[in-house]
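Support request, please re-run this one:
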Amino acid sequence: MKKFLILLIVLVGAIALTGCKKNVFDAEFEIISVADLKAEQEINISFRVPSGIISTALTTLLEDFKIEWPNINVELIAESGGYGDVRKLTILDLNNGIGPTMVIGYPDHFAEYFSGNHLINLQNFIESDLEGVGEDDDFVLSDFLESYLNENRIADEGDDLYGLPFNKSTEVMIYNKTFFEHMNYTVPTTWDEVKTLSKKILVDVAAGKADNVIVFGEGEKKPSQYLADGMFVPIAYDSTSNAIITASRQWGGTYTERENIEKGYAVFNNDKVKEALTFFQGMANDGLFAVAETFGESYASNAFKLIKCVMTIGSSAGVGYNVPEGNKFQIGVAPIPYRDANAKYVIQQGTNIAILGQSTNIQRSAAWQLIRFLLSSENTAKFAMATGGYLPVRKSSYETAAYQDYLTNPPVDKINHSMSANVGLQYRNTYNFFVDVAFVGSSAIRDAVGSMFSAIIVNKKDITKAIQDTLNELGPKYQK
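Re-run finished. Output below.
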């Protein structure tokens, strides 16, 4: 009963937030100068983030910020449970008038905050002519990756920024390097190459050629045994939502369409998306392609470590989860496969940082100084290296001596993350980063198509029926 009441409160809070059109912060917006801000005796601000590597890396940076700004106290609110819980708790707090000063979140989270008039327009700070506030030599907007900035331009009109990129990642292909070298395989670059190689892998594994790739312990199954049990598949995709969204883009299809920040549609019932789904279902039917659920796992990385698959596509920030205990085999990191050279799309992931409206002008200005500090060229590089797999959000960060050393001569415990970062750097010149425009409710469509993809791959559900059932489940709200 208690859990039901908590859920009810969260749902009501979300409705109240997205339905609210009244400003909950002061109508008078004033930017406080650096001199006046430093003259304040004590300023208290709060910053909500997920617990774990994000909060740990921030703790060190906040200590450095305190040296530069001794009168600004930053309460780091580290929430367990991930970004979804950060969003839910922030919505609850905003509706109760006790929202944090700052928060990080995905574009669809920001769409909900914006809908309730809870986001501060950062353009006010960026365009300020006050020294140490607006753009200058240390804070240059053009130094940020443009695709990262674009997802923060969420208003229906204009290009104002309501957030800035904070911790960014993408997807990479992790492969069993020891296996590939032993079998003399070439890492595939296109999905057709993946299909061809996967067929060869199945033949070689069935023949037992992969059973002596590593030393298997007592009770451990070898690849040929997994295959005999129907539990070996050459390649697996970790995120089913990312799989269908990326495939839709690579095959030239559309997934969602936004009318305005309050209204968007599910438009994945089109021939191009069906063509993509047909390709992957065909691979799955031939035993060549899988998702985590195929193995009865929550994450494809678990199957990868057991050598139930030898390639997996997952977050660049999660590469470390694919490393087996005792380093039983080495991993390699490569770009994700693409359909053809004209469709080299890779999803843009990670969160942005924003200032919320339930704050004073002094708190907002203090929060802005913290943003400037965290997003400095050196500090975004430090954060990326400390968290592993996340990417710096500024172009100049890649050129810092510390990050160049990280890319070319990483410490032993960062080798795998360095490989992932190098692929991220490669993407900048050879792939198109993309993210679908967010609107209130777009996360519901994302979750729905992820479940749909699982049903198509794992349960072999008819594609046309799966699409129609998913649209029916989403309801008329998302129908165009």
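The two ends are 37 Å apart (CA to CA). The mean pLDDT is 92.
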